[in-house]
Amino acid sequence: MNELIELISDNLQMIYIVILMIFVGVEVIGHVPAVLHTPLMSGANAIHGVVIIGAILVMLGAEPDNILALSLGFVAVLLGTLNVVGGFVVTDRMLEMFKKKK
């Protein structure tokens, strides 16, 4: 328990920054018009390839017996891949709307 309190006190500024980022993100996304929401989200999902690269780097740097780091890295790679594929699927559906019908 003391280790947890020490970890929080050592990283208090970082915790404040993350909380501020959450509030700013909710405000920005909440004020996006509905017309721009789908293209914005599909582009953001495609950019999440950075998450995949970061998770792979974390897994490469983890010790072979550190099951927690390896499993969290695997879950991050899996979810990041699903997010990237979903972004491309949504973009493809959006572009289908602008094609001329035969």
Q: Would you give an account of this structure?
A:
- It is a single chain.
- The chain contains five helices and no strands.
- The chain has 102 residues and is an all-alpha fold.
- It folds into two domains: 1-31; 34-102.
- The mean pLDDT is 84.
* Total number of helices: 5
Question: Which strand-content bin applies to the residues?
Answer: under 5%
Please give the domain count.
Answer: 2
Sheet having the most strands: none
Question: What structural class should be given to the helix and strand makeup?
Answer: mainly alpha
**Average pLDDT reading:** 84
Extract low-pLDDT stretches.
none
Number of strands: 0
- The percentage helix is over 70%
The Rg value, from CA coordinates, equals 19 Å
Keywords:
mainly alpha; 5 helices; 84% helix
The gist of it:
This protein is mostly helical and 102 residues long. It is built from five helices and no strands.
Topology summary:
Blueprint: H1 2-10, H2 12-30, H3 34-47, H4 49-61, H5 67-97
Helix pairs in contact: 3-5, 4-5
